[in-house]
Design goal:
homodimer, mainly alpha, Arc Repressor Mutant, subunit A, Tetracycline Repressor, domain 2, 10 helices, 63% helix, elongated, DNA-binding
DNA sequence: CGATTTCCCTAGCGGTCGCTACAGAAAAGA
DNA sequence: TCTTTTCTGTAGCGACCGCTAGGGAAATCG
């Protein structure tokens, strides 16, 4: 009973013994992503989830553990599928400036993409949450993103790409604040073009290399 | 029954007829502000409220109507008591640039003030809310703030204080995004000094007058 | 002093929450 | 075929939600 969520016998390539699961776990998870993304952790009830995922409550609990464990998987899935553009830019672009510029421009598109909830799940899905661990986990993720910005900027300073007297932490916070503000405004109805104009203005703070 | 909330006979200077209210409505409201500010609309239950306000549920309903009406009063009170620094700056400062600079600096202090919940109630208290009207009302307030920014900037452009080719809407969105990002980061544990450094960086985008 | 008006407290309403016991259905193994 | 294993659907658990009926308490009025 304790490790009911860990045991996923059906996933093994070999044939499992009993009756096989009648739904696709991956697509069910994807639907849960959309539900949590749109309404947040608390505002998405288990019956909302079962309706969106097309399965019964016992199946949900058998496949994912409980609501909180399902949300953790949802956040993970969201991170790899929708939220990885920032990490990718930080890793691929030659300079911190180019990386942040790309992040802001892509955020304008990502946060207003049609057919998906607007804004960022990590920023919004657990604000004002009565389950402290859930709120805490997303807070940790947000602060980790700020730290990633700061590391990239510090690396550029060390490499001589940016002035040595630059406040890497403050610059990282600024970039993070702009991203978070863009996400909020996307939720509040801003269009992609409006967010792109915002992003371009935000980029003018950077010292030209 | 319909206008139970409107009738506040006790407030009239003249003596009311029956048994007087045994609690101070204003201080009870102030405590409700802090409760909603800290945990948001949905995550603050009526029993949380009665505990924080030191009154019974029937007294709460008699004095404020229902939870939603109480929240509306809370938002109003918050606006006049804690959230008016932006409007004041926009009205008092000679230029849009000075106003936004002051808003960002004051936000750093307001959003991290000790003894109060961090961040802004209007930005956070009704994200992912199952009561659409409540979420909508705060969204409207946020967008009204952006519009106020834009009007002030447009006025400066018209007065020759800012370049005529400036995109007032985008600049307003940027200022708003920075404020919203600062509020989010205050909730996530940023200190006043960290937010002040962020604010200073954000101000460097403005054309010097 | 009653009579009247208003408030507070106890208790509990119907509804939804996250979650699960249980029994039947559907697969694999013998 | 029969047993074993696992999944699914019904039905409902206890807890909490927002909210309120109803009786007594405390004030003003005559």
């Amino acid at each position: 009973m304790v490790d009911g969520a860990e045991a996923k016998p059906q996933v093994k390539a070999g044939k499992s013994r009993g009756r096989p699961r009648s739904f696709d776990r991956t697509t069910a998870l994807e639907r849960a992503v959309l539900a949590f993304w749109e309404h947040g952790y608390e505002a998405t009830s288990v019956s909302d989830l079962t309706r969106a995922m097309g399965i019964g409550a016992p199946s949900l609990y058998a496949a994912f553990g409980d609501k909180q464990a399902l949300f953790a998987e949802v956040v993970e899935e969201y991170g790899t599928r929708y939220g990885s553009f920032a990490d990718r830019a930080l890793a691929e672009e030659p300079t911190a400036r180019a990386a942040v510029a790309r992040i802001l421009r892509e955020a304008a598109a990502e946060y207003t993409a049609p057919g998906r909830p607007h804004g960022c799940l990590v920023i919004h899905a657990a604000t004002n949450c009565t389950t402290p661990e859930v709120e805490e986990s997303l807070r940790t993720r947000r602060n980790a993103n700020l730290a990633a910005f700061e590391r990239r900027i510090a690396a550029d300073i060390a490499a001589g790409e940016l002035p040595v007297d630059l406040d890497a932490a403050a610059l990282a916070r600024h970039a993070g604040a702009v991203v978070q503000g863009m996400s909020q405004q996307a939720r509040d109805g801003a269009s992609r073009a409006e967010l792109e104009a915002l992003a371009e203005i935000a980029m003018t703070i950077w010292p030209r290399t």
